[in-house]
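Suppose you are handed a protein chain with no further information: no name, no annotation, nothing but its sequence. What can you learn? This example shows the usual starting point.
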Amino acid sequence: MFSHLSYVLLDAARMGEHMDIAKVLNPKHDSLYRGGKEQTLFAVAPYIFQFSAPTQFSDWFTDKGWGDSWGVMLKSPWPLPEMHKHFRRFLMVNTEDGQQLYFRYYDPRVLRTFLPTCDAQQLREFFGPIDYFIVEDENPEYALRFKQENGILKTERFKFQDIVQRYGEVDAVQKSVEEKQYQTALKSPPPAEASPEVMKKALKAAGLEEFPVAEQEQTSIKKEETTPKHESAQKIEEPIVSPTEQAPKNKSKWNMFD
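A reasonable first move is to predict its three-dimensional structure. Written in structure tokens, the prediction is:
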């Protein structure tokens, strides 16, 4: 099943410094926050990563992130720019009293609670080009697969280790080719928003300190200055929107970013 996945949505607020490692291991990613004030929140932003298995990135993610609510996986035939545009539509929701709140659908604890509350129209709109989502169960030994058929939500429950073993049997040649791509990515300049010191620390934590981190100019807005280490993370850390009480009730409730 993992061998057919296309993307993973990851939550920097949950991951902390692990997000820096993810960006090095997989250069095919983009933040769902764009422009203005949101640009300063990259340290607690949701990110979309193009996902394939088996690779060093997928092995690292399933080993380190599963069971800790880092994010959700999904399958879609659409390209990254279109998926980025799709998911930005749902970052904010309007409450009954007109208040706008962040909607943390990329948190598996929220998504697995939210989807069963959706009506047919909401399911069709939220899934859009997505074939299915895979999220952690409350018991991380299991995974849940959500898909919609004609506005009806279908849920399947799998033993997580069974899925891991299945995707681990993918052709060895494919793994070798993708491994070389990721090794090359590790030697590439790090993402612009991360300082060399941050990237070196992230690589060391992942046991990858032997790969050089290219020096780069400091950005005009430093990570430490724009995102107070504890305040921003704590502010975004807990789900701001209750998926059962404040999720949108009709199409007009979504706040369309793009």
